[in-house]
Amino acid sequence: MAQLTETGWKKCSTCKREIALGARYWLCSVSTCNQKRTGLAFCSVDCWDSHVPLLRHRDAWAKEATAPTSHEAGDEAPKKRRLMGADGSEREQRERRPEAVDPDVAAAARRRPLEEPPPDEILVVASKVKAYIKARSDLNTSAAVMEALSDKVRAACDEAIRSAWAHERKTVLDRDV
To answer: Measuring CA to CA, which of 4, 103, 147, 167 is 20 to 30 A from 124?
Structure first.
């Protein structure tokens, strides 16, 4: 949603200058920079370029966009839909993303086979695990612990993959784990 300011549409995410209504601005091509919560916008390519090393983007580019006009900015209020009450009266309700997952989609995701398993390699940093155990308990750690932990990590990842499929996403999120 647009954050209308006194004189413009939004402030530049880097230099904090106003981006005027109807003016050109730039967006980052990386999806995490364009989420509603983040909503980064830049007044120039130089401002966009200065944020790239801070966020450690590997492959990014600036996308040109146009800020909404004053009329369009007002239309960005949360969408509402009209519901008919039992007595025939209308009432409005904000549209929300569905919380529940369609049971058929979830069942299909559970049945969907994972591609051939990757080689059984260690997925945890052995030195970090050993240092953690040593610091917490002053115990030594067997090398076999790393294999067992990697098996648990693989199982958690497989479950997270299935959860992302069930929610019809192509990205595994923290809430899937």
So the answer is: 167
C-alpha distances in Å from residue 152, one per residue of 15, 122, 177:
45, 11, 12
What CA–CA distance (Å, rounded) separates 174 from 177? 6
Inform me whether the pLDDT recorded for 78 exceeds 80. no
What is the SS3 string spanning the chain?
A: CCCCCCCCCEECCCCCCEECCCCEEEEECCHHHCCCCCCCCECCHHHHHHHHHHHCCCCCCEEEEECCCHHHHHCCCCCEEEEECCCCCEEEEECCCCCCCCHHHHHHHHHCCCCCCCCCCCCCCHHHHHHHHHHHHCCCCCCHHHHHHHHHHHHHHHHHHHHHHHCCCCCCCHHHC
pLDDT band at 75 (very low <50, low <70, confident <90, very high): very low
Vertex 134 angle, CA 130 and 139, to 5°: 105
More confident: 60 or 16? 16
Q: Which two tokens stand for residue 64?
A: 């040109």
For 116-125, the pLDDT digits (tens) are 666 678 888 9
The tokens 């994972």 sit on which residue?
A: 114
